[in-house]
Amino acid sequence: MADTDRVRWDDKYAGRPSGPPALPAVFTGYTDAIPMTGHALDVACGAGSAAVWLAERGLTVWGVDVSAVAIEQARELADRHAVSDRCRFSVADLDHGLPPGPPVEMILCHRFRDPRLYPAMVDRLTPGGLLAISVLSEAGSQPGFFRAAAGELDVAFADLQALAAGEGDGQAWLLARVKGDRR
């Protein structure tokens, strides 16, 4: 990511107070599918509200984001909610791929889209691991560089077992498991 993009995201987060721990609204109806133990990776975690929510649920979470400002806010949020022992946050330029690490039981990716990372996300999940991804979409909106084409998530993650999905109003999302035994 260009330095100008990193600065833009830092500026965006610097002017925004961090919110309470919360799962992205698109997934709130599916909390029963979200594991309560194991490890999770929050891709483009922002200020950490979802990562801290997952840690409060019982997961050990690694959140990554390009913005150092957002990462600092995420660490502070984890401290305030007494889950810093289950949260790790790192600045990472996802243009270089997912940071290396062990397999995880869950990956959350909310409002970040880079189709080059889709195969790496699947590869990082354990058998039975859960992918929760939402992206901006052209479905019900105007085309744009950061928007997924209609059906993109279904095609990209066709090898996973879809639990729920939706597309419209400028958003596409998918909740899916890696086929195989649950760990």
UniProtKB/TrEMBL annotation:
Keywords: Methyltransferase, S-adenosyl-L-methionine, Transferase. GO terms for biological process: methylation. Residues 41-129 form the Methyltransferase domain. Transmembrane segments: none annotated. Pfam families: Methyltransf_25. GO terms for molecular function: methyltransferase activity. CDD domains: AdoMet_MTases. It comes from the Bacteria. This is Class I SAM-dependent methyltransferase. The lineage of its organism: Bacteria, Bacillati, Actinomycetota, Actinomycetes, Mycobacteriales.
